[in-house]
Amino acid sequence: MNWRWHNIVVEHGVSGWLAQAYDTAELARGISLLLNDAELRQRMGEAGRKKVEQTYAAPVLLP
Fold it and tell me: Which residues touch 26 (CB under 8 Å, ≥6 apart)?
């Protein structure tokens, strides 16, 4: 997925789900996967938090 800044923050399938604009089927697939898989939601949430803490936290940006 090549979304302007989204793919910098979200790694598709690792820390979130990205779909092309207007691809409602792909968006629905991602939502369905997350709704039906608590472990996947947990892993993606943890991966997203880790990336933000390591990349965008104040101590990182303002050493």
Answer: 19, 20
